[in-house]
Design a protein that fits this description.
Layout lengths: L1 E12 L6 E3 L26 H9 L4 E4 L21 E3 L4 E3 L5 H11 L2 E6 L6 H12 L4 H9 L10 E4 L14 H18 L4 E4 L5 H11 L5 E9 L10 H5 L4 H16 L7 E10 L25 H7 L13 H16 L4 E6 L9 E4 L2 E4 L1 H12 L3 E8 L3 E6 L2 E6 L1 E8 L2 E8 L6 E8 L5 E8 L15 E4 L3 E2 L3 E4 L3 E7 L1
Helix pairs in contact: 3-4, 3-5, 5-6, 10-11
This protein binds alpha-L-arabinofuranose (AHR).
Amino acid sequence: MKLTVNKNQITGKANPMIYGHFLEHFHRQVYGGVYDPTSKFADEDGFRADVIEALKRIKTPVIRWPGGCYVSDYKWKFGVGKERIPSYDKAWMVEESNEFGTDEFIKLCKKISCEPYICTNAGTGSAEEMSDWVEYCNLKNMGRFAKQRIANGNREPFGVKYWSIGNENYGGWEIGAKESGEWGRLVAESAKMMLRADPTIELSAASINDLDWNIDLLRKAGAFLNWISIHSYFEGSADGLKNNSYETLMLRTGKDISNNIDRARAILTALGYGDKIKIAYDEWNLRGWYHPNTHGVYSIDQKHEIANDRDGSYRKMILEPRDKNDVNETYSIADAVFSAAFLNTCLKNCDIIGMACFSPIVNTRGAIFTYKDGLVLRPQYFVFELYANLLKDTVLDMWQAETPVMTGKDGNTTKTVDTVDIVVTYKDGEYAIGAVNKDPENSQTIDISLLEDSVNTMRIHTVRGKTADSYNDIGKTEVGIESSDIMTFNGRIELSPHSVNVIELK
Ligand code: AHR
């Protein structure tokens, strides 16, 4: 295929916040994930130093916390102060120790040098509770909550800039779900109080590509918002553990991703917020999280006989299935290729996608898996390592010609996607091209012409494994980054099968 690039045809500035991550109080993400005082890797504050190092290695810019569904019943005040009384977490039907709360989250972000992004409880929570949380974090010393923070050992405000009102409150699975007609009012009243506590914060609100939901939200609260939050998972669901073939998953790397962004952009534009509000894609992953028997509505005819002994059907129906998210063999090159295609789409829509959070980053479906003696870095981790460290901050327009395509059936739907997915970034005379070859068998050749410019050398960094199904596990490393020597650039690059690449041209 042919690629033509003109450094003067600028799409926009890439926002490094698209390499963000999500951390929820679910399964082993917090306890046993980032926070494990009993671990041999624990630092003086009980955080896993190896996890923190891995998060710094991929230049984590922002972490969204504490949920996710968890937040829609979360009482933040239970998670601060000397005495941490355990809560019963109705979102996930487990006990929450409250040992990890706001102060610990802020400490984690400081260790990683990333921005904290707090999602508030708009399920059972109120505008008052949300704005009290802003007071606790951001007021210097006015009022009881700032004084509580000081008494808890943090004299200086945390300066949390990013806040989201609610999480998926449009969904029946969410505690405190809302109708579209009531959501805008709640967001407006919450935003009003939060901004009175700290007018410098940036606010998002739970959104979905639905006209009624967004007309109500934006007409009543659009003036308060910097962002709207959208979420997507592209395989499997809470109750359905899927593991489609590599070829099927590749068919979800085209319109399945871009349609979500196009629709959100169209709704914002139609309602007059196209250049005022950006999209925070603050939960995304190829793999949906698996947690059966939890989101269901326990109507009379569906009631599960969950024994109170916590070792009977409760363990079998609620706890043990969640361990299936931790099977490392699940996460193959498909996860790397999909993740790169998703990030490419965000970069090519950098005028409206300002943030994205991989969901989640540690354990469950994350890029980092923790176990007693170390970490497993799953294939998608290396995409973040290459993209966050090597891609440049200006996204260039480009022209592709003779692009090969892949066509196939995804269920009953015939889909066609580009075999090669490219994004071109640029800074100070140097190019960094994110290039994905989805073909499971064949290499792809790209002839590149740089209009009004020339470069001398190229270097290609590749994430790949022996096969499209390669994966990493404890004691098994099949996937990593291979970097070529610096070579003379002759205008042609070759992408190996099922690979994610960053090509540096200087
Ligand atoms: O499956 C995990 C859940 O996915 C998150 O808690 C929620 O935000 C989304 O529905």
